[in-house]
Specification:
Layout (H helix, E strand, L loop, with lengths): L5 H13 L6 H20 L4 H18 L7 H13 L5 H10 L1 H15 L2 H14 L3 H18 L2 H23 L18 H29 L7 H10 L3 H29 L10 H17 L2 H23 L4 H14 L6 H6 L5 H19 L4 H8 L4 H17 L2 H17 L5 H16 L10 H7 L3 H4 L4 H25 L2
Helix pairs in contact: 2-3, 2-4, 3-4, 4-17, 5-17, 6-11, 6-15, 7-9, 8-9, 8-10, 8-12, 9-10, 9-13, 9-22, 10-12, 11-20, 11-21, 12-21, 12-24, 14-15, 17-20, 19-20, 19-21, 19-24, 20-21, 21-24
Length: 509
Amino acid sequence: MRAESPAPASLLQAFVHNFLGHAPNGYKLAVAGFLVLNPLVVWFGGVYGHTIAGWLLLVEFIFTLAMALKCYPLQPGGLLALEAVLIGLTTPESVYSETTDAVPVILLLIFMVAGIFFLRDLLLFIFTRILLGLRSQLALSLIFCATAALLSAFLDALTVLAIVITVGAGFYQVFHRFASGKPPDAEHQFDSDSEVHESHRSDLDAFRAFLRGLMMHAAIGTALGGVMTQVGEPQNLLIAKHAGWNFAEFFVRVAPVSVPVLIVGLATCAIVDRLRWFGYGTPLPAAVRKVLKEYARIEAAKRTAREVAALVVQALAAILLVVALGLHLAEVGLIGLMVIVLSTAFAGVTDEPRLGEAFKSALPFTALLVVFFAIVAVIHDQHLFEPLVHAVLELEGKSQVAMLYVANGVLSAISDNVFVATIYITEVKAALLEGAISPEQFDDLAVAINTGTNIPSIATPNGQAAFLFLLTSVLAPLIRLSYGRMLWMALPYTVAMTATGLLAVIYLL
């Protein structure tokens, strides 16, 4: 029997190793400590035990969001949510109620993101033409930023940035293979420069700097456009649902803040690019442009009639998408489902594996969003935010909306803007239903919540899902785009856009 004793220890080690996978040991210990601490606080905390445990749970969940680069928040956040139900901080009924209230947001994430997946070839075609058709670095940066903003106003910001990343990664791979002396279809290690010829190393470094600037301009563009409409970001749709705003009304309500921020954002783009501040402004090397244009010419020559027909179908579907959103013909998620049907039925996409691939990027975040709602249910059931919201509501005049803008901005930058917006809009809506604020006050506060969660959150990759997607993409390490470099490159935009938004909230609402 003693000879078999190592087996349980080995099995125990396997369980420990499997817990949260490849996350650092310190992170695993922290999450395990949270799971042990919370029930102890509930059981031995006396009359304030549930309230203290609720606040601890909230801080712990924000911690999992802030550490998203170490471990995707669904698993640790989900464990915290499950424990919250088990120890009585909320109930399954409350979680279900919060989730059903957000069905439009869930439909948006599931169907709209998947629908845009089937417009990918069209969007790739557009961005490729922009990248290779302009020689002015300043014009290229402005158009990339503005195009990303325009697309993000009607599509999902994460999806738009995913398209831009795909374009950037594709072009990087083309030149890296060329610089390494490899034929176009050869197997190649893109994450290693060991085979890059010395004569091409300086061009490769400049190309990396060029792509870093372009990716960050595009990322900022998704934030500029994403704040303007109800479909630009997931939380926008939730805010619109609580406020009862359709697509056009949402745009008009937010415009006094979003339009000045857009102007200042584009002006910031021009300034940092022209002056080459904060890592921006490196032009596309002539040698790289020559290689990429030749590659694009060869690819265009290979395009078949079926592929051209598919592009036409995608263009028509995109036009119909914009019209349907503008006229609010149906819930946004259902419009996304329409795009899926039309862009696949008339493009020959009928096999299940290709259809399933479109849903891969959205479903993990959709599941995480439901975990968000479990945490929101805890906040409601334990009345955690009532003192904070009441303190804001007791302020008078513009100080009220200004404080809400600032509070949402700070929390969004360190955690996640969807989570923060969900908490605040539900609490403010409750205050409206209780008669604590007027409908006019509610509209101003809803605008402050929307702009506060969308604009200052660009300060860190944690704040916006699209930024986090860029940081964790296959392209980021190739072009040397680290967490610290993203913070630095986002800084001028953060200062200019956040200050503009605050002034607009105070003086233009």
